[in-house]
């Protein structure tokens, strides 16, 4: 509904013709829809409420951490899930109250822990006994109290891409299920530590509620066991992972997700929280790109070389991810659909957006939108091949604004220096 084809204006994102943005800012350019973001946040929050869960929503900012995105979601009531000192500072910079921030991640440094405690964030999700000991020492030395949840690895199969599964035994994440109860008891006895409960996150782009349910059942059993042994458990953080529809798969259902939480953890008198990333922002963004040239290669489908590449959108190269591609207007489609390989200009065979994709005929200069790139898109960009970071635009109903200009190429070497002894390029 946020994206539709208009006979006159071409592809509209909310109320803005995308061809205007492509023309005025140049390509490649990431476009995020603020109205779409708000609508998705409200759908998710409503599903939680309808299931009778007063769950707090901590947006996993790794998915898209632009300040404007954070501000839009924070204004809707979102807190943040962060995984680095940098993300923590970004969330604070965007105006998210520290007590609404949760710090996750397997490798928090002592410095990051100090920063978190100094800012007084809501909660740290700990992933190992080693991390717990370190945090206790740091909190004690600072005279602070660290509110913590233990992230448990429930050993369930999330049925997703291996590179984004996080809750199987053998994945680097979380505390082994069998060790969690004992470590919680230890946490309760440590100075500087206030154990609140448990956290679980089994992976990303999960399409069906079954893996969630299996994980939450195990956490519910753990909560019961720990309570029986006399320890208070006040909260469970149910993680993120809800999938979206990139191709023809069904979009993960907020209702079914909320239902899985309600059925397993709902009746236990717990404060509940979730950490969604992709579901909120993925469909709220597109990447606009233009055909540099079509390279005809005797017989085989032609290579359509785009001006965006794996340095911009890494997902197809890294996960064989599928993203929809739509011409921006009738003028960008020169003829009937035919198979093509869509590639970028980067010098790697893996720099392929789509192979054997049947699309309306694309010729030199045609502009297309790559769909569902709002999550894990711009945030995973690099400047490989000295390609400056692409511009970013925010659309909001009929309005739009550049929220990050295209990086000037000089910025790529501005912070580099050559030691004196190297001498000039030509002696
Ligand atoms: N919480 C934790 C602890 C996480 O590790 C993640 C994602 C989330 C929440 C949010 O998950 P989501 O709701 O977005 O599925 N770059 C990959 C995805 C990596 C996900 C990492 N962790 C991709 O492009 O598919």
Automatic annotation (TrEMBL):
Chemical reaction(s) catalysed: meso-2,6-diaminopimelate + H(+) = L-lysine + CO2
CDD domains listed in its UniProt record: PLPDE_III_DapDC (cd06828)
Binding site for pyridoxal 5'-phosphate: 241, 275-278, 376
Top EC group: lyase
Swiss-Prot/TrEMBL cofactor(s): pyridoxal 5'-phosphate
Domain spans labelled Orn/DAP/Arg decarboxylase 2 N-terminal: 37-281
Superkingdom of origin organism: Bacteria
Pathway(s): Amino-acid biosynthesis; L-lysine biosynthesis via DAP pathway; L-lysine from DL-2,6-diaminopimelate: step 1/1
UniProt keyword annotations, A-Z: Amino-acid biosynthesis, Decarboxylase, Lyase, Lysine biosynthesis, Pyridoxal phosphate
Modified residues (N6-(pyridoxal phosphate)lysine): 62
Binding residue positions for substrate: 278, 315, 319, 348, 376
InterPro entries referenced in this protein's UniProt entry, alphabetically: Ala_racemase/Decarboxylase_C (IPR009006), DAP_deCOOHase_LysA (IPR002986), De-COase2_C (IPR022643), De-COase2_CS (IPR022657), De-COase2_N (IPR022644), De-COase2_pyr-phos_BS (IPR022653), Orn/DAP/Arg_de-COase (IPR000183), PLP-binding_barrel (IPR029066)
MF annotations from Gene Ontology: diaminopimelate decarboxylase activity
Domain Orn/DAP/Arg decarboxylase 2 C-terminal: 283-374
HAMAP family the UniProt entry points to: LysA
Family: Belongs to the Orn/Lys/Arg decarboxylase class-II family. LysA subfamily.
Assembly and binders: Homodimer.
Function according to Swiss-Prot or TrEMBL: Specifically catalyzes the decarboxylation of meso-diaminopimelate (meso-DAP) to L-lysine.
Name of the protein in question: Diaminopimelate decarboxylase
Gene name per UniProt: lysA
């Amino acid at each position: 509904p946020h994206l539709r084809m208009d006979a006159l204006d071409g592809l509209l994102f909310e109320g803005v013709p995308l061809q205007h943005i492509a023309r005025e800012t140049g390509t490649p350019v990431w476009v995020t829809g603020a109205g779409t973001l708000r609508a998705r946040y409200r759908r998710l929050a409503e599903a939680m409420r309808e299931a009778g869960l007063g769950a707090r929503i901590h947006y996993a900012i790794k998915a898209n951490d632009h300040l404007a995105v954070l501000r839009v979601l924070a204004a809707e009531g979102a807190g943040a899930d962060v995984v680095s000192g940098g993300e923590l500072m970004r969330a604070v910079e965007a105006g998210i109250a520290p007590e609404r921030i949760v710090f996750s991640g397997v490798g928090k440094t002592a410095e990051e822990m100090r920063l978190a405690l100094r800012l007084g964030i809501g909660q740290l999700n700990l992933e190992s006994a080693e991390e717990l000991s370190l945090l206790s020492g740091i909190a004690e030395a600072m005279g602070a109290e660290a509110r913590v949840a233990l992230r448990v690895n429930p050993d369930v199969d999330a049925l997703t891409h291996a590179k984004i599964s996080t809750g199987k035994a053998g994945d680097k994440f979380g505390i082994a299920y069998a060790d969690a109860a004992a470590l919680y008891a230890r946490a309760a006895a440590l100075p500087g530590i206030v154990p609140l409960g448990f956290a679980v996150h089994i992976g990303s782009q999960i399409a069906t509620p079954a893996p969630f349910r299996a994980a939450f059942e195990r956490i519910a059993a753990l909560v019961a066991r720990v309570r029986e042994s006399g320890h208070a458990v006040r909260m469970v953080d149910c993680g993120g992972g809800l999938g979206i529809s990139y191709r023809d798969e069904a979009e993960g259902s907020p209702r079914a997700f909320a239902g899985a939480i309600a059925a397993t953890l709902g009746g236990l008198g717990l404060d509940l929280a979730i950490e969604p990333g992709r579901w909120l922002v993925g469909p709220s963004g597109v990447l606009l790109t233009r055909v540099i040239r079509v390279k005809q290669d005797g017989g085989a489908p032609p290579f359509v070389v785009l001006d965006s590449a794996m340095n911009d959108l890494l997902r197809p190269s890294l996960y064989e991810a599928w993203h929809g591609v739509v011409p921006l207007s009738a003028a960008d489609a020169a003829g009937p659909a035919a198979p093509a390989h869509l590639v970028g200009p980067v010098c790697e065979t893996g720099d392929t957006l789509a192979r054997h994709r049947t699309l309306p005929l694309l010729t030199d200069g045609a502009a297309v939108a790559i769909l569902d790139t709002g999550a894990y898109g711009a945030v995973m960009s690099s400047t490989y091949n000295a390609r400056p970071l692409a511009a970013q635009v925010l659309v909001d109903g009929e309005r739009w604004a550049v929220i990050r200009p295209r990086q000037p190429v000089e910025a790529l070497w501005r912070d580099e220096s050559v030691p004196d002894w190297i001498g000039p390029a030509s002696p």
